[in-house]
Amino acid sequence: MDSVPHIPNRSIMTDTARIPDKPALEGLESKWGGVWETEGTYRFEREGATRECIYSIDTPPPTASGSLHIGHVFSFTHTDLVARFQRMRGKHVFYPMGWDDNGLPTERRVQNYYGVRCDPSLPYEPDFAPPFQGGEGKSVKAADQKPISRRNFIELCEQLTVEDEQQFEALFRQLGLSVDWTQTYRTIADEALFTSQLAFLRNVERGEAYQALAPTLWDVTFRTAVAQAELEDREQPGHYHRVAFAKPDGGHVEIETSRPELIPACVALVAHPDDERYQPLFGTTVTTPVFGVEVPVVAHHLAQKDKGTGIAMICTFGDVTDVVWWRELDLPNRAIIGFDGRIVAEAPDAITSEAGREAYAKLAGKTPFSAKQAVVELLRESGDLLADPKAITHPVKFFEKGERPLEIVSTRQWYIVNGARDAALKSKLLDRGREIDWHPDFMRVRYENWVGGLSGDWLISRQRFFGVPIPVWYPIDAEGNPVFDEPIVATREMLPVDPSSTAAPGYEESQRDQPNGFVGEHDVMDTWATSSLTPQLAAGWERDPELFDLLFPYSLRPQGQDIIRTWLFSTVLRAELEHDVAPWANAAVSGFIVDPDRKKMSKSKGNVVTPAGLLEQHGADAVRYWAASSRLGTDAAFDPQSPTQVKIGRRLAIKVLNAAKFILGFEGAADAPVTVAVDRSMLAGLATVVEHATRALESYDHARALEVSETFFWTFCDDYLELVKERAYGEASPEQASAVAALKTALSVLLRLFAPVIPYAAEEAWSWSNDGSVHRASWPAVEELAARGDAGVELLELASLALTGIRRAKTDAKASQKTPVTSAVIAAPAAATALLASAEGDLRAVGRIADLGFAEAEELAVRDIVLDTPQEEARA
């Protein structure tokens, strides 16, 4: 296999001038960050690369609107651990960074930051200066925001996202992400527009993208359609109203509804086909109260026999179930809620009675809340309200970024097929999910549940401003009406294109908005319609075919669990439609960050921690250690007031520096023969650590790799280093050379094991005795230790226990660890004493024991210790 040409990492005799008098973590980020950038340490080596030697990462592009939070540090560190490991394994690592800068979050931030709002009807002002510069503008109410042209608004979006991206990059660099910063992209740049629009045109050509007039979830605040993946349920207070519908025989049917204001939009009553109470009514009609419209009673399996009275209104449209009933039962559309969220002025044609139309006139122009109050009063007056409203709480659908309940309105929108109505496509998408190796594996179920639960195709059009324009125009007939059923699509040569400023193919600009002319599509694509193409975008699809063939399908998609339904699914969908493959071999899904009360951290909850202060106070290595300690898919609690794991990580990084300084102070070479049994035992134990850590990282279990490496490191420092330091300090001899060689060999291996987690400390310590970067050094292999560490690991374990016993005996005698010992006995099983005999010299030296004997016993213990201090002589 071809591999990245590693920077030389040959061991050299230590140049003590390289080692600082007092090693410290402070300043390492700026020191090594500059070196890595200058030397191109993390640069993707395209020349000479083959698919077999490339490891490509489909990096999540963070939304460039506001500030990064601790969750970004958490999940991006997980990705970086993989990138660093694979690079040290000899892979050409493609690790780009993207910025997701189009979409609603950016628009909201621009509105708040500059105190403006977009009004497309206004002309462009070339020298426009926003009312606020550099402030959050949050004190400016929406009504007080200055209206500006779409072009002016987009310019402010461009300006602010660039500023945010620079701050994000600086923080990611400080964190030590080994990103190739020459491989960056923006989801609003020309390359992204080209890729997104070309993929859309291909979807149109294959019949996978279409427009339709259909019920659409609508956010009345943002005046935009909302996709299924952007929904969330929130518990809201409400009331059930028991209402009477008149039967032809003079009786009535009772229903309970939380939305009586939609009675004028009622098109049927529905009950479960097995509900014996209502089976006699199926096929008959009833009359709506107040508005006097005759509607059918129908059966459908989604009706709930145990909810309310067991029979419900079907209205156009109260919720997504109404949409299902309306579509499957082929019912009429009598929608009464407009794009502004208010009751439309014109009553449905079905309301024909004078009394019904007068009643409707009292609702026109009202909000649903006010209309509800008006209808309740009308029901009281007519006698059709059968009981006082009953207070309830119930789940209501919201746009995940919205503050008002969603309504369902009829709009013309663009869709991409996603398997909701195509069993064959749904089956393929499930198969693609099974082809991907998920880490952890149980996250696959979330993907499959999402695919299985899809109820409609993917709505991709948005009524926003800062986004990828949909590359479509519509002809205008002789009467001046747009012909939406005959869209004019852009040609590839026109891309990227904005239909609002470029004439349609075959037309002149003077024909815009004129009879027999054209009108440009004003909608933009959902931001996920671009983010779903990050593999294609970063790899140069249709722009750099050679690079794309090298990288795609990618090796890894790392991401959060909350966007499996959006980013992960939509990327699988686009790869299936365009390439007929899964877009990556692996998916690594990080857990959430939760606060000390185990609540997910989010801006809406006000419990988000920003990482800048944490990095400044504790250092990047310490923060990375905290992130690396959590397994994929596992939520991690974080308390900014007491960041215990961060402090442990800082302690580890400092200990690595100090241990390296201490070891490199010994005279001798790392490649000298290792002849002493306890030295070989230590290296054998380290070989096992390398084996386990490597296997764990290959399985995307970075937490396990860190655990085994760190556990060995503390044993190495506390026991082995203490055990052999007297010998290492001694005069030149084969035994002294063996200790120094084992110590320096172990240091080299440990620095490489720790390099992905604490890259700054590892690089600093490595530089004291090696040329080149530890991050371009080879990942440690069992083979480089096996020949030098063929002794059993039991010897070091036993020696460590014996050393602990000697220390405890001195402590129990209230003596200093430096106190000389006249004599002592190590008692242990026969096999153990035979092994320990080979470490007798080191045990005598570290314990300052003149005469060390051995005896048989069931368990290892240090006894009969005689301290060589007359005033403190004692036995233990």
Automatic annotation (TrEMBL):
It catalyses: tRNA(Val) + L-valine + ATP = L-valyl-tRNA(Val) + AMP + diphosphate. It is found in: Cytoplasm. ATP binds at residue 603. Belongs to the class-I aminoacyl-tRNA synthetase family. ValS type 2 subfamily. HAMAP family: Val_tRNA_synth_type2 (MF_02005). Monomer. This is Valine--tRNA ligase. It comes from Agromyces tropicus.
